[in-house]
Specification:
Layout (H helix, E strand, L loop, with lengths): L5 H30 L5 H7 L2 H15 E2 L2 E2 L6 H16 L2 H18 L2
Antiparallel strand pairs: 1-2
Length: 114
């Protein structure tokens, strides 16, 4: 009986289906909003929150997860560095200052508390 490489074929099928699905979803929004002369005000207001929501979804897990589990303890130095970065961002509204303060604090804390 010839042996088939079913796992590899299924993996490629899943990758292609996911790519096509993503393309169709994005194309549907472009086609839908392309037919409208003016985007409704409520939709525009809602879309203004998308960048902050996406950034939060990418960044927050890096602060609260340590060693594969949620870590909200004082041992998680990233929480302190992140808190300082949030404070600097709020006060200065400067991205470079925020990055420098957050990374500097994280490096310093990792050096002081290995």
């Amino acid at each position: 009986m010839p042996q088939t490489n079913f796992g590899s074929e299924m993996l490629w099928l899943i990758i292609i289906a996911a790519g096509l699905g993503t393309y169709v979803i994005r194309l549907s929004f472009i086609a839908f909003f392309g037919r409208l002369d003016d985007i409704p005000e409520r939709v525009e207001q809602a879309l203004r929150f998308v960048p902050a929501a996406v950034l939060s979804a990418l960044v927050v897990p890096q602060f609260v997860y340590a060693d594969g589990a949620v870590s909200l303890s004082p041992d998680n130095l990233r929480l302190f560095a992140g808190g300082l970065a949030i404070l600097v961002a709020w006060k200065t509204e400067d991205i470079l200052a925020t990055l420098a303060a957050g990374m500097g604090a994280l490096w310093l804390l990792n050096f002081l508390f290995p």
